Fold each of these.
Amino acid sequence: MISTSISFKNLERYKNQMLATLAVNIIAFSQGHAVAWLAPTLLVLQSENSPLVSGPVTVEEASWIGSVVSVGGITGTILFGTLLNVIGRKKSLYLLTIPHTGFWVILMFGTVVPHLYIARILSGITGGGAFIVIPTFVADIADNKIRGTLGSTILVNFNAGILSGFILTSHLSYSLFPRIIIGFSIIYIICIYSLPEAPQYLIKMKMHEEAECALRFYRNFKAATKEECQEFNENLANLKNRINGDLGSKPSSLSYRDFLKPAAVRGLLISTMLVFMNQASGLFALVNYTSNIFQMSGSSLDPNTSTIIVGAIQLMGTFLAAIFVDRVGRRILIISSCIGVAVGCFSLSIFSYLSLNQDLTHLSWIAVASVSFSILMGSFGLTPLPFIVVTEIMPQKVRPVAVTFCLCILSVTGFTVLKIYPIMMVDLGIYGVMWISGGICLIGAVVMFCFLPETKGKNLDIKEDS
């Protein structure tokens, strides 16, 4: 009975944080559909039944359609990383709908390959912006005890959107799919309309009364006892001190020396490695080119059916990661994730190589199992957790710029991987590409074991000289 009472009390305390997190992640869910659009559609675009008036898409054009999303990612990261601190978290959340809606509109009316380039760039801007604005907003409003879980929900919603997108794209016409999904933009605007701005930004803008009201909302504070009032006031004072250094003082200007302090240097190196591994592992490429990979691997199973299975596995893995991230910790999940992805990649490589010289259609399930295992293990740590750890491992003063820099590295690496993946699949075969991805993951596991600290439950206020 006591345990149930405590759980209910905690649920009440975190209710508004959870509802706000779900609201802002609607666009992450919709963005998952935008990413999922490519994998099943690319096979159609490359066929003689291509819906484009310009005809079937070539391998070179396919590599550009796949990779330009990362160009948009860099743009979105820099743009929204700047807007985040200029106009605030909430207005930045609103602005995400502009490129996102533009993506769906172009898909509705686009008829040639350059139209798809523009659409994918807009999709990248939304993704780059969403993965800096949403985690920052959630980290600002979340209690330390559930910060990891709430932070992980962006990937849960994103991957749920990918799964839904795989299913809908495989069963709906090329023109109908965007007409349905564009409606999520309206739902998103309605749901975030009543949310207060993040208290941290309001304090920075010297809007202290608004900041107190926002903190009351996100902490679901109700002054029942004198002790609770005192605890709330202490939390508010600590938050002001953390943002301004001291109550009433202005934050010092940021200089390059701030990035040379031990904590900042250590955080940047680890964060850069994390985001590099996130893309160099090939997990995002697997999502974008899933149908092509299954078709070229020697599997006899329907590529789109296999893609849906992988999408379901990815969602399950991310959901489990959200549950265990604040129980097990970030470090062990990331290391085990790297090892698991490597095992899956090596398995697919071996299957693909053997299928070149013998008929293995009766073992096609191995290809699906290998990719599913890589995606499952990646979803436990390597896919979601770098975005959480990067915001946790950096000192408060340099965090916005450092996170923007790391996400730019993410986009550059992502562009490179997505651009060369289709070409490498032709030149090296699936077995060669998977062998390279598996090797990179093993190296990453060793590096993370040696240098990655645990950040579970730690306060976001990191000493710069530590």
Note: Residues 1-6, 246-251 have pLDDT under 50 and may be disordered.
Amino acid sequence: MELKRVVVTGIGAVTPLGNNKNDYWDALAKGVSGAAPITRFDSEKFRTKFACEVKGFDPLDFLDRKEARKMDPNSHYGMVAGDEAIVDSGLDLEKTNKDRIGVIWGSGIGGFTTFQDEVVSYAKGDGTPRFNPFFVPKMILDITPGLLSIKYGFRGPNFATVSACASSNNALSDAYNYIRLGKANVILTGGSEAAVIETGIGGFNALKALSERNDDPTTASRPYDKDRDGFVLGEGAGALMLEDLDHAKARGAKIYAEVLGVGMSADAYHITAPHPDGDGIVLVMNEALADANIKPTEVDYINTHGTSTPLGDAGEVKAIQKVFGEHAYNMNISSTKSMTGHLLGAAGAIESIASIMALELGIIPPTINHFTDDPEIDPKLNLTFNTAQKRDVNVVVSNTFGFGGHNASVIFGKYSG
């Protein structure tokens, strides 16, 4: 069968840098850090006392009070980003067959706040099992796509993907495949995460995964820097409307970009550490390139996973050099996690948005907070340090990797008719 072409027609974002796509992108292009001391709880006794929190966000500005109380913050972020993407797409919901519109959403943890609060409340009580009747639906990871479908009446494919920090890239990959196989005309996809809470910070501290640069949070996320000491936890959501090209053209939709191909792989190595030779990363990028039917020399920019961890950053860069060879020196490479922190299951969604905006505007968002070269990382590579760079961008790769060895890459291209 002939596979359908798939394009992006709507974007929505709730991030540590801004609560809509325009504010998010403006901050990225300016190299703004979203890191600051934690405000949600008293972090004094924690080894890490800062994070990239969503700021100035009130769910009641967007959601009915009664409905908002039935949702975890994970879903608040997802609902608002999803709504922005739907509006941005210009899709007329009264004239569109909703049987052919789906929602496929990613999250690494889901309703973490709800789970923590309910368990703490029970533990502090007298043993009587008093739980919120919405405890389970607020907690489960698939509730956000369910809520979006209920609100808008979308009756197409509807489920959640869970692959730790690769979750929303896996969601986007599934959405792409469902549309190109003719199973749906439109799918709202993306991811959300809300883990900046005591158990989130404490759990990642116990893994020794987080930066502990408490004296200067804004420079704590340092992908590729010699003195990087772990990632900065972030939160928020990103949403993209994917659409069958013919369907989009028929309604005169604005097209941001085309999804050219996707790749998925596993390290099959360790629960948290990346493969030392980057085998899974090499495999996933090669799979994505083959799926897109493009040559490595056609790629202009890679938005890397780049979390600011000692092993992960160096391994991804070495894998890029294996896949792209000499062309690696002609590309731009950057980690926007240097600004947003790591949104876990939502990382792929907001980084896909950054990739698409780079395509549309010809601006590569920077890797901020570079101070000292790492001798393990080739200094001749253009890692777009500290300042955004302008260039013609036609093809972008967006990488995400998750605990458990999950890898997912998505390739976007400039739409050319």
Note: The longest strand covers residues 257-266.
Amino acid sequence: MGRRIAIVEDEAAIRDNYAAAFARQGYEVAAYADRPQALAAFRARLPDLAVIDIGLGDEPEGGFTLCSELRGLSKRLPIIFLTARDSDFDVVSGLRLGADDYLTKDISMPHLLARIAALFRRIDALADGEAQEEAIERGPLRLDAMRLAAQWRGQPVDLTLTEFWMVHTLAKTPGHVKSRDQLMHDARLVDDGTITSHVKRIRRKFAAVDAGFDAIESVYGMGYRWKAQ
């Protein structure tokens, strides 16, 4: 079988529709109707990617809770929110909890499948050695591409898959400005709608290790760059 995708959605018709579409693409699918059922299954066996709704049964914020619990089980597992809720507050909340992507249910099936494939391509790029340097060291920063591990001044920084790739993309060429389009391409994002939120979260994680962290610079109207030491 192919990679295993978990879909957590409380509406049976919607859940079955997505499960069937994923299966047609060759993915192995595990479908769950609520948070307790999904969490019990995840503790027994992690999927390769999780697609989660926010409102689950009698838990209006159940998906947020599940995302946090799943991040406790795995820092690197790709997580996508797929929900009818489209407020900026919900999007930021989802990304802050560690989701790699946040999509609304009006997204077309081809677009959803493209977002899933993009996340898997990031994993494949590492396995295939596409990352030109297995380990990158830039001053206090150390990135281990094979283990998706980041350190700052010798302290681990827990980055999601998307966050790791964005730091990797910036740190490969210190001092060079990466436009939003370049970040989308290099970090394998399908669109730039969440780049700003991801950068804010990355900065927050490094600042938790070093309050003086300022290695990621915003270049007005152009993009971002990793400061040359």
Note: DSSP finds eight helices and eleven strands in the chain.
Amino acid sequence: MRILSKRQLKELVLYSPQHVARLEKAGKFPKRVQIGPNRVGWVEDEVLDWLQERLNRRDEPVRHS
């Protein structure tokens, strides 16, 4: 298992830390893992699965809620 840092996550997902936090809070992004008192990370496999879901849906028509 590999844990991604904030920097690694940003390179992979291309979202700002604030947007990632909003998505996490809404249950639309994998939750961070508290590694230490001042350190968090994300499980790489969970983030890659999240990205794969988006890739799988990219040819579907866009639905506006």
Note: The chain is about 50% helix and 15% strand.
